[in-house]
Amino acid sequence: ELSLQAPAGVTVEELVFPEAEDFVQEGLPEPLLVFEREFLIGVRLSLAATLPPGDLVIPARLRYQACDDKMCYAPSNAQA
Description:
Elements: E1 2-4, E2 10-16, E3 21-23, E4 32-34, E5 42-47, E6 60-64, E7 76-79
């Protein structure tokens, strides 16, 4: 799950996740849908014409859960 804290004048238009892949985990009857070790998430933003020129920081938090072939670990968060 990707959460963005868009400041005033910024609108999140679209989030684009990569296509998930089936991953067979020992002991589970159905495969898990997962992303590989490294993946990109696309974000399309709209900026209001009233925003001043310059750098813009948009805080983000990615909540994810890592799994290996035997188990899934506790969910984690990454901040940016």
